[in-house]
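ERR on first pass: missing label on line 2. Operator R.T. fixed the label and resubmitted. Corrected input:
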Amino acid sequence: MSETAILCVDDEVSVLKVLKEQLKRLFGNQYVYEVAQSADEAWLVIDELEQDEIKILIIVSDWLMPDVKGDEFLAQVHQRFPEIVTVMLTGQADESAIERAKQQANLYACINKPWTEEDLRNVVGVALN
Amino acid sequence: MLNQAKSLFKTPLIHIPDKPKKRLPTWPTLLAAIVAAVVSSASIYTLNQVAETSNRSRLLLAQVKEQLSRLNSLEWEGISKGRIDENLAEELAEHEEDSDAIFSELREIDQEQNLEAFFILYAEYEAAVDEALEFIEQGQIEQVLAIDAVAIDELYDEVYAEVTVLEQRYVAQRQRIRTLADFGTAFLLLFAAVVTGTLSQRFSDRLWHKNQALETALDELQQTQAQLIQQEKLASLGQLVAGVAHEINNPLGAIKASADNTHKALQEALAELPSLNQRLTPEEQSSFFGLITQALDGKSSVTSQEGRTLKRRIVAQLKEHDIEDARSLADLLIDMGVYESLEPFFPLLKSHESEWAVQLAYNLACPFLNSQLIIGAVDRSSKIVFALKNYARFDQSNKKQLTMVTEGVETVLEIYNNQLKRNIDVVREYQDIPEILGYPDELIQVWTNLIHNAIQAMESGGTLTLTIREQDQGVEVTVTDTGTGIPTEVQERIFDAFFTTKPSGQGSGLGLYISRKIIDKHEGRMGLESQPGHTQFKVWLPMGSL
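pass 2 clean. output:
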């Protein structure tokens, strides 16, 4: 059983589905892949994984979501789990939000939508190693 | 876009036609005409005065003639009586008095001394008569007769003839002056007519030009208003573009990744498929194809939360049957959309090749699953593009057409979807409504303004409620937000042009003004009620007629 996980957060189910499949094909079954449609749901997943003693390595989050935005969510994550690598995946490059995420969430990278498999491999693959 | 708007305002709104050149200036002309008229009137007055004087002179001369005759007859009366009795003396005195009065007046009038010759002649005649009368008074009739009365008579005739000549001369002079004055009057009237005519033509010319300029200005204002409406729409579209780009990038990202995934899945499947017979028993194979068939049945997709619940359930179920790798198998099954009645697949799931087989089944079902995703994403993109097209369209024909109000409202909600989903709940209370006759593109702008304002009023989240229903032979739309509300003093001015409460650069102040104009154009009504936490704009549109 894998002990580490990758979490994807996006308000669009279709994006979560393809993103998860893509990550799985890239990095195989050695990781647990979890998805959440909002920051609130992501916290539930984080708690569940923590209970199952599964360590989250990377969180890939959208920026524009209902209620809590990506930069805010990643900043909160960073505060609680500084070792988790934070990545933003967004269709709308809000410079100030990215800047905030860099400072408050130690943002590792920001991938623009529509992304390529190459983008994912470069960012997530390098971060995992 | 901003530059366009600027250049729009730089263009002069009114083109006044060039003034005709080489024309007399109006006011100096009028002044000169008045001066000329005054001078002419004064001259005519003077001429009339002179004519009057001539006339008076003529009348006086006529009186002189009378006095002459009377003096002559008095003289002869004295000669015939041979004495001057009391009666005659009285008449002579009266005559002298009258004569003096007439002569003094004549002297006064005769500034040019035309009468000098006459005065001398008359003085001679009077002297002769006085001498004769003195002789009569003294009773010396012989002396009187010796005086040669005939000579006195001749003198009388001479004076009388002179008076007649003078009288005729004054008549002629008066006639000349009268003619001159008449000419003057005629000229003055003609001059006045010309000046009045010219000036009134100039004024009417000027009015015509002013009128033309105003008509042009009105035309241009109407065009400018149409342009402003379009600019306003484009400006708000510009603000939306970034958000809409995000909206389109989401499905695009999904489509791209789906294609990649399909490609990889097929590659893997083709590599593994030949070993199917060796790795799976016939029973497992039938279970394998059953799994693929169920995946192709296409269950509706589940939310991530539902997915986790299902996953927990399936993991538990698989563990009950001592199936290994329960977590990753469950994950694959859910991704395939297979999560109900798993029993038929237990032969396969229990096999020691289960993970390989389920992965292969997943890869074989993948093109189908991803096609579903792609179709969904394309539908989503089309919807956004359709909304954009509707939104940016600007009907030039300006003809009413049948339109469904709900569609316009939905278009705007679609455009604003990405702003709304941040922290605003949208509640739609739509009833079935008939189509109305109206201007759909312009109505979209009304919904845009109302919804945009509502979103801005709920910076920190809230609920946007839209109701659409049939009402009073028309359609009523309400847009309600739970934002900060509009203060009473602002409510009165909110529909005014260029009135805005938004920070500089955020609002043109034209949104609600234009909205009201558009509703007016539909002969509809627009109202507002607001208190903190509840602001409602209510629009009523009639069914409309062509």
